[in-house]
């Protein structure tokens, strides 16, 4: 029997309630599920609810995502489309030979760091021509050494197996940062028009969380000092993917 199709979330408020209900399953607070409501107004906290003690509490949600990562992900998708279009628009003899040569291949294209999308797109035609010279038995890592590719492409990898190829996968340059402190600082400065106690839920969703050792020590130094100066009584870090609480301050009794 086919699985039940889940309707897409239609609004920001629906998505916030969805994220919060996932958080509520993981958090060691007895949140009444039927009490969850969206806040009213642009400046209001995102979520209002009741605990099992009947205490009313507000929660503000904040997604943790690196803007450079988000832009890089979008650029990589655009580059994938441009790459496939460039191959499809190549002269038929080249296109057919390329398809036969790499019919069972996954080809990874690793671009240099911090290059503009325009510069990477300009290199697609000579890049395909370079890959075409690797031959029908090419497997492994290859490093273009001739200009202009050597200044744009760091490495080309070819894997052969059960692929319906050629599959071309560009990998954008740059690094995934950890913007969690910027998220906390931004929220701690805000003032919310409510007399209810407020807790902050910073969550990873689109961006995978880095290891705790990378960000937790700095957050543990920052939160105890900054939280008392804010309107929040507690701050959480939550992973949507794993459904786990990654950090909380102050800890629950």
Helix content: 25-40%
Q: What class would the helix/strand composition place it in?
A: alpha/beta
**Judging from the principal axes of the Cα atoms, what is the shape?**
elongated
The biggest beta sheet is recorded as: 6 strands, mixed
> Spans of 5+ residues with little confidence (pLDDT < 50)?
1-7
From the alpha carbons, calculate the radius of gyration and give it in angstroms: 24 Å
Mean pLDDT equals 88
Report on this structure.
The structure is a single chain. The chain has helices at residues 12-26, 67-88, 92-101, 117-122, 124-132, 180-188, 212-226, and strands at residues 37-38, 47-50, 56-64, 105-111, 140-142, 153-160, 167-171, 198-204, 232-239, 244-249. The chain is α/β, with parallel strands linked by helices and 253 residues long. It is elongated. The two termini are 46 Å apart. 22% of the residues are buried.
List the main descriptive attributes of the protein structure presented here:
alpha/beta; 253 residues; six-stranded mixed beta sheet; elongated; disordered N terminus; 10 strands; four-stranded mixed beta sheet
Q: How do the strands and helices of this protein lay out in sequence?
A:
Blueprint: H1 12-26, E1 37-38, E2 47-50, E3 56-64, H2 67-88, H3 92-101, E4 105-111, H4 117-122, H5 124-132, E5 140-142, E6 153-160, E7 167-171, H6 180-188, E8 198-204, H7 212-226, E9 232-239, E10 244-249
Parallel strand pairs: 3-8, 4-7, 8-9
Antiparallel strand pairs: 1-2, 2-3, 4-6, 5-6, 9-10
